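Appendix B, record 7
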Amino acid sequence: MAESLNPNPLIVDLPYHINYKHSYGKVSPYFVGLKNKKLLGTICRNKEKHRSKTELLFLPPRADCPECMAEIKEWVDLTNNEFRIYTYTIAYFAGESFLNQVPYILINVEVVGYDTSYSKLTSTLVINEPGEINIKPEEIKIGMKVKPKFRDVPLESITANSLYFVPAEKP
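Structure tokens (predicted):
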């Protein structure tokens, strides 16, 4: 390893700022829906071209069907549907956007009555939400009913984290 020519390098703080324009493209209605407290998915009704011979629901939404390769143009409002926990984990480490929530509960949800074999929405489960059913972490069960909730944020700040779930029933 080469020796530094300057054993006391000058180190300064330089502010750095960048504006990044991000497009949600064809799935933009999903994020606008979150702002409007709606949970939207896309559905491909080409069941004759699907191996399962069923319509396929995509949540999070997809613009194209991976099964039949068709462009998906149909949106469905799932806000009031029944949701169940498909799987879950308790995270004790996190990326930057979740650091203030550690430990937190990540869940995959399925929408009852739809074939969601291609997509399971990953979100957080809040078990101590004021005004909602509160449970202990050890009471979380696969198959437990949950319901969507939406954070109030400006449209330009909408992300997937604007959606979360709470228990819909006592265990």
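Remarks on this record: The first strand starts at residue 40 and ends at 44. The CA atoms of residues 6 and 12 lie 16 Å apart.
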